[in-house]
Amino acid sequence: MKHCIWIMICSLIISAHGAAKENTETTIAKLPEGISIELLGIRYFDARYLEEFKKQDYPWWRPNGLSLTEIPDGSRTRGAGGDTHFFVIRIIGDADCDCKAIGTWNSYLTVRSVRNKGQGYENDDLRCFTLRFNETQKQTDIQLGLAVGQWNVVENWPFWDNATPDSSFFGSSDGVIMRCPEQKGSDVVAEITQTILGDATRLVAFDKEGTLHESQKSSGSTGADLVSYIHRFKNLDIKKIDHLEFQARPYDYWITFSNVSLQMGQKTQVLVEIKKPGYLLPGQLLPNFDGIKIDPARIPTDNKSLLVCFFDMEQRPSRSCVLELSRTARKLSTKDIAIVAVQALKIEQANLDEWVKENNIPFPVGIIEGEIEKLKFNWGVKSFPWLILTDKKLTVIADGFSINRLEDKLKEITDVE
User: Fold this and answer.
1) Mind listing the pLDDT tens digit for each residue in 308-346?
2) No. of H helices and E strands in the chain?
3) 69, exposed or middle or buried, with CB in 10 Å at 0-12, 13-18, 19+?
4) pLDDT tens digits for 57-98?
5) Which domains does the chain possess?
């Protein structure tokens, strides 16, 4: 009897130890730059019952579905619409990075800083975002883009004292328009409308002494091919602004947290995958063309190498690349190399068809009809135009190279075969 009791006590101790270990399980993506991203906690929110959510603290849980007792964000009203899930991530290391989140059903891409941090998280870099899902969905995959590189200046706008929001707009050849900033209390507020969707962006102001001021950004209206943001420069006098810069940098890493639980108590095994677009694709098999509207019968599969060009018809470098490929298509065909082009941003199908016809493009041209960011992620596309070259087994030989280096890359096929 004593022996049985001792076995039961040992079993309880082991079980308790296992539960404690399980409850402290973390989901962290560690990057080479010394930055780590932890998917910390999840909470449900439904704006249809706003008053109910205001009155009480709804529970938080970990990505694996287990309870999270330490509340990372004390806000009770954050969310958007029904069936919203609110996510908090913790960034460990260099804070000079930008994030965006991509959902499977509906997405709110802004990842913003947590302003009402919970007890124990006061010194942490916490950021949050909201995503909506089907109410019956029990788990999902969460994708985060992370930009850590240098900022590039897209547009430099000198500022003049007599400019007003009603009379002055600051334009750009790169699809960025700024409505003239205005003084609102102690802050300067500006609105940016942009077609740059694939990169991290920011608006900075330089005062007349050369000091840089970075704005706080919040989402405005969105459309199929553009988005607007409200930028607020805290405690800045508009009369001291010398010029403003709109800056961009690509997302260097894509982090996927798979099997994330959408219901507390729904236990899952979360997996973490890190991908750096343009660096992990070579050596792998070419992805399939799911999510791309193109005639499958025109995609060569009969012992030919494939050259795929992702482009944006509305960008001059992209158009030039496709036209150059058109001129060399016959020559490449004699080397058993077929070409496929893909319009990677949403435009009117009729406009694309007309441009292809006018320029006598001899190879198939498709267009993305699925989720753009996910397809770019799967294909490793980092910018436009983006070339991918395979051997005859459709194994990727090279990607991300300029068309001027195509001849060099063709030699690599010969070397491999």
Assistant:
1) 999 999 999 999 999 999 999 999 999 999 999 999 988
2) 6, 27
3) exposed
4) 678 999 999 999 999 988 765 555 556 888 999 999 876 888
5) 25-148+252-275 (no CATH), 152-249 (2.60.40), 292-416 (3.40.30.10)
